[in-house]
Write a structure and sequence with these properties.
The structure is a single chain. The chain has 267 residues and is α/β, with parallel strands linked by helices. It contains ten helices and seven strands.
Length: 267
């Protein structure tokens, strides 16, 4: 088709075919939101702003971020059967739930099904389905994770904690796990730490420094960790809570949410 290119100081566009028109419609929306967000970030640097004014701008920034994500998500859903939707899906699939990704994957045209990224997303989604909340995990895991099973006794509630010594948020969350372990370790509860470290010395030093007295394991394979692959973990810190029957009852618990859930299930 005939494609029309327009270049300006602040923006640019490509229109004239159905796919270009669809993509440009989305770009126009997100560019407008981006400009508003940038204006807020620049204004936040004004030292004369009161705390109330800063808080108001932060809330407006958060609202715009949600609006930005909504535009992308709607753009993917509307265009998933054409190259525009597939392109956006490949960039943003990690923001979706397992159910959303599964539904979108089914709609992707056959000529994109062998795309390298799409294949990886399909594999990850299948793993996530198997390790979703209330999915049954025999002996806590599969045969590839025999060591997990050895750490788990029948009837115990087990919290599998995925972390790494290089992960700042993991280190900040650790005092909460130390507190939980001190409170519940004598009450049919266990924690198993699974590290995504590569440096054995740094891993072991962090265990001591962070006062992690529960069982720990790592194959030192970074993001290729077999444990992380098995549980479809793509960000850390991440926790998986498993009941005494081997059923996953929660994922991604931290802080007060973790404490509340443990108070509910550990007797």
């Amino acid at each position: 088709g005939k494609i029309n290119i327009a270049l300006t100081k602040d923006n640019d566009s490509a229109t004239g075919t159905s796919n270009n028109d669809a993509y440009q419609a989305i770009r126009t929306q997100i560019n407008d939101i981006s400009q508003k967000m940038n204006a807020i970030y620049e204004a936040m640097g004004d030292s004369s702003l009161s705390d109330e004014q800063k808080e108001a701008k932060q809330k407006e920034g958060a609202r715009l971020e949600e609006e930005y994500d909504k535009v992308i998500k709607e753009g993917v859903q509307k265009n998933i059967t054409n190259p525009v939707g597939v392109f956006l899906f490949k960039q943003t699939f990690y923001n979706n739930s397992t159910e959303e990704n599964a539904a979108l994957l089914e709609q992707i045209p056959a000529n994109f099904q062998n795309d390298e990224t799409i294949v990886k997303v399909k594999e990850q989604t299948e793993k996530q389905k198997k390790t979703a909340v209330y999915a049954k995990r025999s002996h806590c895991c599969t045969a590839r994770c025999t060591n997990y099973a050895k750490r788990r006794k029948k009837g115990k509630v087990v919290l599998v904690d995925f972390w790494a010594s290089w992960c700042g948020p993991c280190r900040r969350e650790m005092p909460n796990l130390v507190e939980a372990y001190a409170q519940y370790k004598g009450k049919n509860f266990e924690i198993v730490g699974v590290s995504l470290d590569q440096d054995a010395a740094a891993w072991k030093e962090s265990i001591k420094k962070l006062n992690m007295t529960w069982p720990q394991m790592s194959d030192l394979k970074f993001w290729q960790s077999e444990g992380a692959q098995l549980y479809a973990v793509n960000s850390i810190p991440h926790t998986v809570l498993i009941d005494g029957d081997g059923t996953i009852i929660a994922r991604g618990l931290h802080g007060e949410g973790l404490q509340a859930k443990l108070a509910e299930v550990v007797k």
